[in-house]
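Progress narrative, work stream C.
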Amino acid sequence: MALQSGFIKRVRDIMRMDAGINGDAQRIEQMVWMLFLKVYDAKEDDWELNEDNYTSIIPEECRWRNWAVADDNGHAMTGDELLDFVNNKLFPTLKNLSVDPSTPVKKAIVKSTFEDANNYMKDGVYLRQVIDVINEIEFDDVKESHDFGFVYEEILRDLQSAGSSGEFYTPRAVTDFMALMIQPKLGEKMADFACGTGGFITSWLGQLQKQVTDTEAQKQFDDSIYGIEKKPFPYLLCVTNMLLHDIEVPNIYHDNSLRHNLLDYTDSDKFDVILMNPPYGGHEDKSIQSFFPDDLASSETADLFMAVIMYRLKKNGRAAVVVPDGFLFGLDNAKVAIKKKLLTEFNLHTIVRLPGSVFSPYTSIATNLLFFDNTKATTETWYYRVDMPSDRKHFSKTKPMELKHFDECIAWWKDRKEIELEDGPKAKKYSTDFLLNDQGCNIDLCGYPHEEEEVLDPLDTIRNYQEKRTTLNAEIDKVLAELEALLPGGVEE
C-alpha cells in the first residue's frame, strides 16, 4: 500500500509546481496518458514474447521504452528537448496513426486513446520528474502490479472529486452487488453503453473470473465485454483499466450510444447482459431525440438510455440498471411510455432502493437498482429497501458504502418475503396491474419514511424540482380529464 499513497502524492506534488496545469482534473488527465503508455509498453513486452513477428503500431522513437526510459549511459531527455519531443513529435504521431477496419483492436486503441488527450505541462524538467516516478512501477512484479490496482482506484477517487470533470462514478459496492446478482456465465457478452472508467465491466470480470479453468474459458472471458464511452477522458481511463486487468483486446469504443437509430438495431447488436448506470440529470441536444420513436423521445438522458437498453437486450437476456428517483415517480409522457414498455414487454422482477447518500459527495439524488429480463411480461415486481447501517447516519467519501451493507438484501433475494416495519414496508411485491393502473406508472413505492437530512446542491435541487413539477402537472391533467368526463356533455376517454 506504500506505493499507492507515495506514488500519487509524489506525482501530484511535482505537477503542482508546473504552471501549465490548472486543477486536479488536468493533473489526473496528465498522469493517465503517461500511465497508459507505460502500461501499453509493458503489454507489448508480453505480446513480443508470445507472438511471432509482433510489430508495434507506435513508431520506434515514440515507444515509451525509447524516449521515457534512460539509455544504458543513464541519459534521458529532459527540459526543453523533452517538452519539444512530447508536444511536436509524440502527440502528433499518436493522434495521426494509420488505422483502418483491419487494424487489430489492441493496436487501434492507441490512436483512439490519444485523439483527445493533451499534454498540459510546460516545464520539461518537471515532466521528466513525473516520468521518472512512473518508471519506478514494474508491472512484471506481481506484488507491485497488485499494489498498482490500489493506485488506480486512488486516481479514480481523485477524479470523482475533480469538480471540473463533471462526472461521478458508481461506488464499487454497487457495481459488485449488481454483478453478483446478475450471475454472469461464461459465453455470455455483457455491455455498458456509458461505461465511464469501466467499473461495471471490472465487477463483471471479477465475478466471471471464478469460472475460468482453461484456455478456451479464458478466451470466452476475454471476449465477454463491450463498452461505449462518449467522453474522451473516462474512455482513456477505461482502456487503461482493461489493459491492467489483462484484457488485451478491450472492446471499448469512443462513441455516443444515443446517436444511433433505435429501430435500426438487429439481433447482432444485442447482448446477453446489460449492466450500467446511465448518466442522468444531463440533456442531449434536440437532434438526439430524432433517433428515438416519438413516444420514447425524452429530453432526459437516463430515459433515453433506458430505451436503448430495452432495444439492445437479447431475448432471455438480463439487465441491472441504476436509475434516479425521478425515473420511478416521473409521469411525463416519455417516462410513462418507457415504464409501460418495461412492465408489459420485459420482466421487471426486482427494484432495490438505495439511501440518498450512496453517491455522496458527488450527488445526493437518491438512486435505485432495476433488475429485469427479456423473458416475458412482468406479473409482479418485488421492492427491497436497503436501510442505512445502524452505525452510520450517512455514507461519505471517507466512509463509503461497502458490499457488506448489501448482506441482508442478498439473503432476502434468495428467500423473498414481505417485510413490514413500523414506518412502512421494507420489502413488498406489487402486481403489474397495480403499478400500471392504480399507480398510473408512478412506481415510487417502499420508499424511505423520512426525507434524509441532506441538502442537495443547487443543480440537483433544480432537477428534482423540475421532475416533481412535471409529475404534478401530469397528475393534475389526469384529474381534470376525469372531472371533465363526469360533467354533462363530457367525453369519457
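Work stream C, second folded protein:
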Amino acid sequence: MDRNLLHPRSWNVRARSAAAAALVVTICLVLAGGALLLVLYRTLEHSARDAADARARQIVEQLRTTAPGGLDSSLFATDGQVGTIQVIDSAGTVVATSPGADRLPVTFEPVPPGESRYLGNIDLGDEPDYWIVERGAQSPQGPATVVVGADREPIEGILGTVALLMAIGGPVVVAMVAVASYRLVGAALLPVERIRARVAAISTDRLDERVPVPDTQDEIARLAETMNSMLGRLESGHRAQQRFVSDASHELRSPLATITAALELAHTRPELVDTSLVDESLLPEARRMNHLLADLLLLARADENGLTHTSVDVDIDDLMYAESARVRDMSPELVVRTAIAPVRVVGDPQQLARVVRNLVDNARRHARREIRLNCRTSSDGAVLEVADDGPGIAVPDRQRIFERFVRLDTPRTRDSGGAGLGLAIVAEIVATHGGTIDVTDSGTGGARFVITLPADGTRQSSPDFSR
C-alpha cells in the first residue's frame, strides 16, 4: 500500500473537506459529551444529596418527640436515591436502621443537635458507596446523630448508560457528517469541474470560447466571470500579438525587398551600382529598417519588464525649444508657435526627449500651415501640449492611435509617416514616468496632444510667446 495515499496532501478537496468536517464534529462531540456527563453527574449528585438531607430533616423532627425505636418505619424506607439510614446514639450504637443495612455505624462523627455535616463520598469496601449527610438531633433518650447515605450506584448506572449511547451514536453521527460533507462538497465543486474541463479544452485557436457561468451569485459564479474576463484578455492579447507580428513582417518586407533587389542587381550587373542607388535606395531603406527594429526592441522590452529609466532633473522647456528650432530648420514652410514656461520634472532625459520628438514629428507630418508647442505647470504637475492644424483625429480613434502599427486613413498613412509605432512608444514612456496623455481638438481644427507629468522642483515664470 502506498503510504502517500495516507497523507492528506494526496487527497482531493472532497476527501479533505469530509475528513476535516468529521474531525471537527468528533472534537465537538467529545467536548460536548464530556460536558454533558459532568453536568449530569453533578445534577444527579445534588439531587441525591438534597433527597438524603430532606430525609434526615424528617427523622430529626420526629426524634424530638419520639424515641428512636418508635420512629415511623416509612422514614427508613430506601429508594433510588436514599440507600441507607442510621440513627446513632451518643455512645456510637446504631439504635435504628433501614431494612437490610449493617448494624455497624457507617461513620461515627457525632453532630451536635441542630447542626448538619456533609461528609462526601464514603467507601465502605464491598458495600456500595454513599454520599453521607449527618444531622444532629435531640431525642427523649438523649443526643443522637442521623446518618443518611445517598446511593451512588444508580447515578453511576445512568452515567454509564448515557456514555454508552454516546459512544455508539457518536461514530454514527461522524460518519453521516463525513458522507454528507463529501457529497455536498462534490456538488458544490461540480461547476468548478465544468469550468476546468472547458478551460482545458480551449486552445489558442479557440480563445473566443467562454466557460459556463452558474446562475448562483456566489464565489463560483464570480470565478467563472473572472475566468471569462481572463480569456477575453488572452484573446485580445493573442490577436494583438498576431497583428503585431503581421504588421512587423509587412513593414520589414518592403525595405528588405528594396535592399534585396539592389543587391541582386549589383550581383548580376555590378556596373549599374553607383552612388545614387546607394544614397537613394539602399541607405534610406536600411535606416528605415534599423529605426523600425529599434522601435520594436523598445516596445518588446516594455512588454517584458517595463521600461526602466534614470531619475534626474529634466528641463522640459529646453526640449521644447530644441524641437521648435529643429522644425523651423526642417520645415520652413510651417509656422511654429510656442508658449513655453520653464518646467522641470524628474525622469529620463533621453526618453522624454523622444516623447517630445515623436509628438512634434507627428504634428509636422499632418500640419497644413502651423503647429503649436506649449509647456507649463499646473496643480497636477507639468503639462506639455503639441497641436497642429491638420485634419484632426476622430473621437472613436483617439485611443486606438496609441496601439501599435495603427495608421489612420486620410493623410496619416505610411507614405506620410512611419510604421505606426511612434505614438505607442510615447504612451509607454509617459506611463513609465507616471503621467497621462490625452487627445483633443486643437483651436485650429487639428489634433492636440496633452501630456501631464508629475513635476518636481518646478520653476515659476511667465511663458515666452514667440514665433
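The longest helix spans residues 13-63. No further action is required on this item.
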